[in-house]
Amino acid sequence: MSEYNVKKLRRTHKGRIVAGVCSGIGEYAGIDANMVRIALAITTLFGGLGVGVYLIGWLLLPEEGRDTSIVQDLISKQQNRDTDWSGEQKQQH
User: Residue limits of the Phage shock protein PspC N-terminal domain (predicted)?
Assistant: First the structure.
């Protein structure tokens, strides 16, 4: 069976300035990461939306070389903590 070359949205290491969100979006969309940075800066100046979008991207986009995002890691850690060693759910009080 042949493998398909699927383009995935990731936070990249190459071209990273802070967390790699803009460089990842730029690489995925096929545009310069600086254009994404400028767009986020403009949206930040006019209402602050750019900061929120960047934070959401940082939390939800997996880092290059990883399969899970920060949020997915936190959820699985919480689920593992709520399950004891036998695989049964712990009682919530």
Answer: 7-64
Structure confidence at residue 1 (pLDDT): 46
Phi-psi region at 32: left, alpha or beta (left = phi > 0; alpha = psi -120 to 50):
beta
- Pick from 7, 11, 28: nearest CA to 71: 11
| 68 domain residue, yes or no | yes
Residue 52 within any structural domain of the chain: yes
Is there a contact between 56 and 70 (Cβ–Cβ < 8 Å)?
Answer: no
Q: Is residue 60 part of a domain?
A: yes
- Number of domains, the chain: 1
pTM: 0.70
